[in-house]
Amino acid sequence: MKFLKQTYLFNILLGTIVLLVLSCVEDSESPNTKKMTTMTVTATAYNSVERQTKKGNPSLAAWGDILDPGERAIAVSRDLIELGLDHNEEVEIIGLPGTYIVKDKMNKRWKKKIDIYMGLDEAAAKQWGKQQVAIQFNTKDKPYDKFSLQENGK
């Protein structure tokens, strides 16, 4: 009888340990898993000045955000929005420190393009000019973007 009780307690202890270990292992398909996409785009820079943005409130972005000088924000072309690079998405620009947040969208005429926000520093924007850069962003769990539709065979 004592042997059965010890075996029973051992099995409960072993089962508990197995459950703890399995709960710590991250599932590759869990909702928090990021699937990063990298692409090359044309990058220019812009400032909060009326001749580059809206008359009356040059700090007002297309989604209604107010841009603050020093903030790491970008505007994206509309084709990139369709790919999942939507409002408030985080973007890494390879070669630049930190992450940038999508806060603005560009005119429909632009394709595969981002505009890096440089506050009021027009000299920095001119110095940046026009460059080809690689960007990286998460495309996981966005059911209506083109990446997810391609994965699901649609």
Quick synopsis:
With 154 residues, the protein is α/β, with parallel strands linked by helices.
Task: Provide mean pLDDT, rounded.
Answer: 81
Q: Profile the largest sheet.
A: 6 strands, mixed, barrel
How many domain units?
Answer: 1
The SS-based structural class is alpha/beta
In the CATH classification, which architecture applies? Beta Barrel
> Helix amount, in percent?
25-40%
Unreliable segments of 5+ consecutive residues: none
- Neighbour order of strands in the largest sheet: 1-5-2-4-3-6
N-C termini distance: 62 Å
Shape, please? elongated
In total, how many beta strands?
Answer: 6
Tell me the Rg in angstroms.
24 Å
Identify the quaternary structure here.
Answer: single chain
Account of the protein in words:
By secondary structure, the protein is α/β, with parallel strands linked by helices. The chain has a single domain, classed as RlpA-like domain (Barwin-like endoglucanases). Helix content is 27%, strand content 25%. The protein has four helices and six strands. A six-stranded mixed beta barrel has the order 1-5-2-4-3-6. The N and C termini lie far apart (62 Å). The relative contact order is 0.22. The model has no long low-confidence stretch (mean pLDDT 81).
Supply database-style keywords:
six-stranded mixed β-barrel, Barwin-like endoglucanases, 154 residues, 6 strands, 27% helix, alpha/beta, elongated
